[in-house]
Amino acid sequence: MAAATSGSPSALFDLKSAALTAMALVLKSTDLMALADALEARFGATPAMFDHDPVVIDLQAVRESTDPIDFDALAALLRRHRLQPVGVLGGSEDQMAQALAAGLGDTPALTIAPPAPRAEAEAAVPAVAAVPEPVALPPVWPVVPSGALVIDKPLRSGQQVYAKGRDLVVLAVVNFGAEVIADGNIHVYAPLRGRAIAGAKGDTSARIFCICMEPQLVSIAGTYRTTETALPPEVLGRPAQVRLVDGERLVVEALKL
């Protein structure tokens, strides 16, 4: 029999404020079959992309839709891709109620009120101060630590390396059929002939650097380019970088070494 615990309830547990850093999945359609196909097309080949990372479902784009959302099925779909849904935001009253019934509550942690300037905060305010309206934060991408994952052996076809939450540095050839993935930047100081996926969790500022650009595929934050679109001669087989322009257009350009 368990021993009785004396004292106040605070001896057994505490409730404290906590800040949650999570990705936001912006739902643009209520068609879960189409969403399943899109998730499989983007992440199906990279099963190690996520490690049960928390994700908030942003409903603002489908707020006006009258189609019901099966939140139980949506949560199960995300878990199959090793994403852990923790809440929703931005939905209509009915959508938020349906989400709550599925165990997904409102997530106000992604909205804040901007702080007042120091001079105003320190001044005496005899009347009731106006409270600024909460403003929506942009998605918070994982902070990439300074320490990079370094690989010094050739990668053969079928091998995959993922630098979770940091940059990836490869000192040997990435052969055709191999795959290198990083949440931050990718540096390949050898021929890149396989697949390179930088900014894997949405960091549009990530880049791919290579001294011999011959990739099977390059991708930054979900925007990709394959060998179906031939690289121009000034970058093919030469030192080059891959970056996003305006957050949506992939550019491959020569490096001036």
What would you say this structure looks like, in words?
This protein is α/β, with parallel strands linked by helices and 257 residues long. 14% of the residues lie in helices and 28% in strands. The protein contains 4 helices and 16 strands. It has helices at residues 32-43, 71-80, 93-101, 118-122; strands at 23-26, 53-58, 83-89, 111-112, 135-136, 149-151, 160-163, 168-170, 179-182, 186-192, 195-198, 208-213, 217-220, 223-226, 240-245, 249-254. The strands form 4 sheets. It has a 6-stranded mixed sheet, with no helix packed on it. A 5-stranded mixed sheet has the order 7-9-11-13-14, with no helix packed on it. Strand 13 (217-220) and strand 14 (223-226) form a beta hairpin. The radius of gyration is 23 Å and the shape is elongated. The termini are far apart.
Portion of residues within helices: 10-25%
Strand fraction: 25-35%
Distance N to C terminus: 73 Å
In spatial order, strands of the major sheet run 6-8-10-12-15-16
Q: What global shape is seen?
A: elongated
| CATH class wording of the largest domain | Mainly Beta
Taking all residues together, what is the mean pLDDT? 80
Corresponding CATH architecture of the largest domain: 3 Solenoid
At the fold tier of CATH, the topology name of the largest domain is Pectate Lyase C-like
Question: How many strand elements?
Answer: 16
Pick out the low-confidence regions: 110-138
- Please write the string of helix (H) and strand (E) elements: EHEHEHEHEEEEEEEEEEEE
Instruction: Tally the structural domains.
Output: 2
What is the radius of gyration computed over CA atoms, rounded to a whole number of angstroms? 23 Å
The biggest sheet, with number of strands, parallel, antiparallel or mixed sense and barrel status, is:
6 strands, mixed
Counting helices, strands and paired strands, the structural category is alpha/beta
Total helices: the number is 4
